[in-house]
Amino acid sequence: MELSTNKGPVREKSGRSIDFGFLGPLVMVAVIMGARYLFPDKLAFFTEASIYAIYVMGNNILMGYLGYVSFGQPFYLSTGAYAAAIYFAYLGNSPIVAILLAVAVGLALSAVFGPIFMRLKGNYYTLVNAALCAIGLFTYEKLLIGVTNGNDGLWFRARIAKMPFLDVRLTSNLFLMVCVILALLLFLYRWMDKSALGAVFRATKINSRKAKFLGYNPYAVRIIGFTLATVLSTIAGALFAINYGFVNPNLGENSRSIEVLIATLLGGVGSVYGPVFGAFGFLGIKDIVSRFMSRWEFAVGIITILVLFFFSKGIWGFIRLIGKGVTEKLFRKKTAGSIGKEK
Amino acid sequence: MTRLFEAIVYGFSSSGILFMVSLALSIGYGLMRVVNMEAMLYYSFGAYITYTIVHATGSFVLGAIAGTLLGALLGLLVETQLLRRVYHREMMFSMVVTYAVFLIGIGVIQFIWGLEPKPVQAPIDGMLSFLGISVPIYRVIIIAIALVAYALIQLLINKTITGKALRAGIENRDNVVALGININKIFTTTFVVASAFAGLGGALNAPIIMVGPYMGFDMLLLSFITVILGGLGSIKGTAVSALILGQVISVGGMIWSPLAAVGPFVVMIIVILFRPTGLFGVKGKAFGFDD
Amino acid sequence: MTDKTKLLEIRDLDVSYGNLAVLFDVSLEVEKGEVVVLVGRNGAGKTTLFRSIAGFLPKRKGSVLFKGENINSKEAYRIAQGGIKYIHQDKQVFSDLTVKENFELSSYATKDYDWDPLFVFFPKLKTLLGRKAGALSGGERQMLLMAMALLGKPDLLLLDEPTEGLAPHVITDLVGVFKEVSKTTTLFIIEQNLPLVAGIADRVYCMREGKIAAEITEHSEIAGISFEKYL
Q1: What is the dotted CATH code of the domain comprising A29-312?
Q2: CA-closest candidate to residue C45, choices C23, C18, C24, C72
Q3: Which of B269, C6, C39, C114 maximizes the CB count within 10 A of its CB?
Q4: What is the ipTM of this complex?
């Protein structure tokens, strides 16, 4: 829309009015761990949600930093999962290796698809990704059925070995490992967000031509972002594989592509801690709703609309807003048009 | 060899359906820059109402008319109540919102009609034999209807003043407004026509495929591939790519059966690689990045 | 009681793009029959002002009165129908349609099918009727846009940098057209070509950083381009 919605220079808030400093990730994970001990029978939920948070972080980079909507994230998730699964089923039994393999697979996928996809504009990207997801589903379900067992699923729980210091065959131990990984990734994520790279992402998203004139290569920036997002997704996939002990094509279904989008939006797009809130929020809602309704799609649709129209800043954004209001009252600082005011 | 020719004819009938069903998507993006994922609801509801009417009255023609009208009605509802509110938002927003509507619509379908697939009898059973091949008459009828649809739309777009305003609006919406033309009304009308065709497509496809709550999912992807391959916003593009994809599914599937499912995706990705705007991308709108 | 000869009256207008304020307290007026020119550097907010008037941007504060009526919340197409025609800076025509079809669109919008007066202003267009608008040169496009805008006999034309990018002899022709057109239509023009401004303006508004910096009514000042200091 040329005349009417020229946005001009837009003030993107990178500022946080609540931020626990670099201890933030630790605090976040500590809260998760604390909650898990409060509800010991919900261990499976906490593990899943923590892994899902990593998946959402990946999508958050795509949506928040690059401005892309992918209707095909399940492809990357399931590829990571199958990479780990195939490794366990046929090659080896170390969880560490499986995760590293997932990282390698993520890098490989980025190398192949990044250069192609990052040339596409938003809507084309969305649909090409959806197509990729469908192709992936077909590949895992039918084409490679000899390797993946198709819809019967690939089972390998028994083959996971005890790691030297932690036996992740026990869910409680797996949860610990996931927490450690999550904390680490949150650190890195936050560091990136605050660094020049984060700024460059935002600049490129807002006005890529200007970013180019500043000397940044928008295309390269996007590829970096895509790589980060993809690797996070494959890591999450591998963790899911270890968690369940088996993988089937359901993980990569097209219809599930909306779920990670909702989780991202629910948490608050583009923020550092949003993905955690979004993951827990979404899976929590799903858990509760599916007890009452078998027709899950309907509920997902309604939730999406509610979130988009009334809750656009997401849970974390909402918390920040409240926090900002509170700290404003406490310190009586004028924050009109504030950017990056740290507390 | 006869099998090949028959597959080609089947392919054309698939193309016909695909074309009619994909119009709403093509126009939605071409004029208003929305990616309306709920478009398959017009298709699905069209098919389902046809089932209900055929079940109640035995008349397929009535069912098809009902399907067309329901598609139009739903299109009107969605465009005026929902899409209007999201035109000015970013594409991410409209995509996810319309997908949510799509999901809700599926929920409604399940609620009204349940989960089991509904069989719909084709109105005509016989075969048509010509040039040594034999194809169901029904398929030929579908091809005929699709051709009429295409001709009608071309007429509307190229010969009527509203059609010209539409084309102008696709190229430069604000300038059309600056002339004093209420482009919103024109767009709504066009959108309703497109959703009516989607409903008709659903009705016509009902005897061929399984009428189930998830029929929209499969068609959604295929429809998007059609529109992307053809170039978002180009009616001719939609028609041409529907032709191509219909053959890929039909003849390709005959050669190697997985091609029926996967072929369209592969074709799309290949074309996009070399021509990011699709075959007939809308003039004046770059789909690569302008950096 | 509103003075009826004030065709366009803007009072204390504030316009923002989202959070970014662009126009501050803009007040000006255009009287019927005048040629008023708006000058200012790039980024001063001139185009933003025109867009706001034409209804393409929401107004944050203040009012725009056209023929005494407040058009703040009127839809853009209604404003155009009401007698304000806005011609955009980038001289975009509907390239896929022929010149004739471009005219037909404007006639359809205004119900004015009398093209003869336009051919008096722009005789060349008559020879170009069958050509695709996309094939026209910059000058021809500007003429087409003006001709289209004149259908329906609008009260006010908002011309955004009409001579930008055009060859000198084309500009001369265009200025001649402005003078003719201004006999029946009020013109509000954005221009960066200051000598040209001196030649046609009855009054000049200088805009700087989103505000009206000066209003020049003295003919000697306009002719001498002494208002440059306000930019």
Answers
A1: 1.10.3470
A2: C23
A3: C39
A4: 0.88
